[in-house]
Amino acid sequence: MANQPHQKVIITCAITGNLTRPDQSPFLPITPQQIADSALEAAEAGAAIAHIHVRDPETGRPSMSIDLYRDVMDRIRARNPKLIINLTTGPGGRFVPSEEDPKVAGPGTTLIAPEKRVEHVEILRPEICTLDLNTMNSGGQVVINTPTNVRKMANRIRAVGVMPELELFDSGDCHLARDLIAEGVLQGPGLFSLVLGVKYGFDASSETMLYGRGLLPAGAIWTGFGIGRAEFPMVAQAYLFGGHVRVGMEDNLYLSKGVLAKTNAELVTHAADILKSLGAAIASASEARAMLGFS
Prior knowledge:
Blueprint: E1 8-9, E2 11-14, H1 32-45, E3 49-52, E4 54-55, E5 62-63, H2 66-79, E6 84-87, E7 94-95, H3 114-117, H4 119-124, E8 128-132, E9 136-138, E10 141-143, H5 147-159, E11 163-168, H6 171-183, E12 191-196, H7 206-214, E13 221-226, H8 231-240, E14 244-247, E15 254-256, E16 259-260, H9 264-277, E17 281-282, H10 285-292
Parallel strand pairs: 1-17, 2-3, 2-14, 3-6, 6-8, 8-11, 11-12, 12-13, 13-14
Antiparallel strand pairs: 4-5, 7-10, 9-10, 15-16
Helix pairs in contact: 1-2, 1-9, 8-9
């Protein structure tokens, strides 16, 4: 694995996410047009990959509607066919035990069959989709991604020629990824993201990022990113440790303390400025495609 900074750094922009809420920022993209426009603006600012969730246009709540995903992808590809699209498969893995009987699902549970969580990927065929390997506490809830269900999702993702981006929230996720590669369920050396700063997962620190990087397979391509106030410090850290970077309103709504970002492009521009100040060059979408093995 490369320990030196890359000559060209790939910036991913996570456009709207699943947990950030419209009441937290009036600038959060909600509708397919807003999400697509925000991704295209982020691309103009230097993002080579757009990580996409969709939301119900009426309520702003997270959605898994295939029609909404298709609408966003069509709008992006009509105007920028080179931008790499990365669709989430994260929704559908949350369990909230009921007060009366903890083995019964309570309000807020989203658990669905793993096959349903990747259905939009099978139909729409983005270049990349996420594959979360975490089972962990999340607030007062639990996110569940069992190895059996991860295998089912991985097999379907690979069958349609989409590249899985493995999201790692703690050290056990790294070990699971290595086991899945050893089994042949996943193809090595792999594409990874170290997710830092989620409560009860990896801490957003230099020590943790270095530790997580050391658990990845040799030759892995990886991104390291931080949540909330850790977003921009982790941009610099990921670059210096030989990784790529991610920013966006999914992870952080603020450009600086108390100052809401008005667009995802502002977050990408700030990240690009940090990288350039450290001597990095920003990979274009075409360059990122070549680095990742896409046409």
